[in-house]
Write a structure and sequence with these properties.
The protein is an alpha/beta fold and about 325 residues long. The chain has twelve helices and ten strands. The strands form two sheets. The chain has an eight-stranded parallel sheet with strand order 3-4-5-6-7-8-9-10, covered by helices on one side. It has a two-stranded antiparallel sheet with strand order 1-2. Helix 2 links the parallel strand 4 and strand 5. The chain is globular and about 55 Å long.
């Protein structure tokens, strides 16, 4: 496992982190707690030292906390998220920060997360939505400063709204944020336009989510793919979207001269080829996925030629948005 600086924080984090949404049985169907525990332990065995969870991920905080406490002698960083008080994803324009992240709500959510996990602090506390309109407004920043001083959190970050990387530029430039979490993958390359350069200049750590496009960039979503009822992917990949994804994947593999089976590895290597990226957090619900994904951290980025090919496969769309 290779490690990178998490911005200016002083923390060194594994290139492959652990995305823990899927293990919480909230939105993803098929996870079992026993396998989730094994997968988490195996990831730590293989050098993963950053786990990303959230208050809104069902049982995820509890499961993550159990494993981290069992591995108390090892350095494992845990990031969690505060959901907006108004429960609106993403944050709409014109919303006052007091409606989403008033100080009292931030504290209450953090205390609930600490109890659920059994941990005495979190290394990163992130807002689960963000709007740059909130910079310099509300009492959230004062609350974050107090929580840091009390030792309940180490760093402050935000999870940027889906496909809105420019909506955190003012926050990054303000100097008050330690990390940003953003969607970045072969299809959505937009964070590299302005967000990544700003993060590098300001020393802000970058946590990449959705590197595999919720499974679309694994090559295993095809025209005939279906997902269980209750699994969020049944909405994400609704209608003719699986067929659209398959066509794009076929074009990528043809242009790169790779097999469909190499697609997931290529997608992760694409993300790690960006110097601004501190860590990528693919969802990993099984030991098999842990072993496959962590193997990508071997110091071999994609070549300049491969990156030039992939630059042509930018495909910006928002499958999260409801019709």
């Amino acid at each position: 496992m290779h490690y990178r600086n998490l911005g200016r924080s002083g923390l060194s984090v594994s290139e492959i982190g652990y995305g823990a949404w899927g293990i919480g049985a909230s939105g993803w169907v098929g996870a079992t707690e026993d396998e989730s525990l094994r997968a988490l332990h195996r990831s730590i065995d293989l050098g993963v030292n950053l786990i990303d969870t959230a208050r809104g991920y069902g049982d995820s905080e509890r499961i993550v906390g159990q494993v981290v406490r069992e591995r108390a002698g090892e350095q494992v960083y845990v990031a969690t998220k505060v959901p907006p008080k108004n429960r609106v994803w993403p944050a709409p324009d014109g919303l006052d920060p007091s409606e989403a992240f008033p100080g009292a709500h931030i504290r209450e959510s953090l205390e609930t997360s600490l109890r659920a996990s059994g941990l005495d602090h979190f290394d990163v506390l992130q807002f689960h939505v963000w709007s740059d309109e909130w910079v310099g407004r509300g009492d959230w920043l004062e609350t974050i400063a107090e929580l840091k001083q009390q030792g309940k959190i180490r760093l402050f970050g935000v999870s940027i709204n889906d496909h809105q990387p420019e909506n955190a530029l003012a926050l990054v430039r303000s100097g008050v944020v330690d990390t940003v979490q953003v969607i970045y993958n072969i299809f959505d390359q937009s964070p590299a336009d302005t967000l990544f350069p700003a993060c590098e200049e300001e020393g802000v750590g970058v946590i990449v989510r959705v590197a595999l496009d919720e499974g679309g960039l694994t090559g295993r979503v095809t025209a005939g793919s279906t997902f269980p009822e209750g699994d969020f992917r049944s909405r994400y990949f609704r209608g003719d979207r699986p067929a659209q994804v398959e066509r794009h994947i076929d074009a990528i593999t043809a242009d790169l001269g790779i097999s469909t089976g190499e697609m997931a590895e290529t997608a992760l290597r694409y993300v790690l080829s960006a110097p601004a990226v501190s860590t990528v957090i693919p969802g990993m619900r099984t030991v098999r996925n842990v072993e496959r994904n962590t193997a990508v951290s071997d110091g071999r980025p994609l070549t300049a030629e491969q990156l030039a090919v992939l630059a042509k496969h930018r495909w910006e769309r928002n499958f999260y948005a409801r019709p």
